Amino acid sequence: LKRTIPGIRKRNPEMEFVLILASSRYRGTVETELEGLGVKIEEQSRFYQFLHRTRLCISCSGTVTLEVALAGVPQIIVYRLSPLTYAFARFFLQKKVIGLPNIILGQMVNPELIQNRFNPEMLLSEVDKILHDSHLPGEMTKISGDLRKKISNGDTFAQVAEVIDDYL
Questions:
Q1: What's the pLDDT tens digit per position in 144-161?
Q2: Closest by CA position to 150, among listed 39, 66, 51
Q3: How far apart are CA 61 and CA 76, in angstroms?
Q4: Is 69 exposed, middle or buried (0-12, 13-18, 19+ CB in 10 A)?
Q5: Looking at residue 134, what is its pLDDT?
Q6: Going by fewer Cβ within 10 Å, which terminus of the chain is more open, N or C?
Q7: Other C-beta atoms within 10 Å of 2: how many?
Q8: How far apart are the two ends of the chain, measured CA to CA in Å?
């Protein structure tokens, strides 16, 4: 990510970059890594405050991907594992997608950059596609609505767990 931010900033100088920490215990490390890049670092408690005025999220795979999709915000889902863990997971799971919105809707609604595809060139390419797609706001509203319909009857946690269990 730190190698991608200068390229995004060069093409979109008006953009503000905010990184929401999953855990405040990593704040010092993150600040050191992103020093000089003009990235505002915020606590997880401020996530929703920033989410609703966001044009694009780069989300690490997990429950945050579902929260971002439900808010109707375009996102790129990224994830990298150790090579051995990744090989093990690919062999046993043999699944094409890992993002919750993609799993729940059974299609690639958010691009995923996993393992070696998560690199500065691919990330910059996906960012450019999303930021220059004039149809995306309407599509994201539809995707958000589709997700809400799919998980809105009864116990949402149980429904998401059931979808993931079926997927696996």
A1: 999 988 887 655 566 666
A2: 66
A3: 9
A4: buried
A5: 86
A6: C
A7: 12
A8: 29
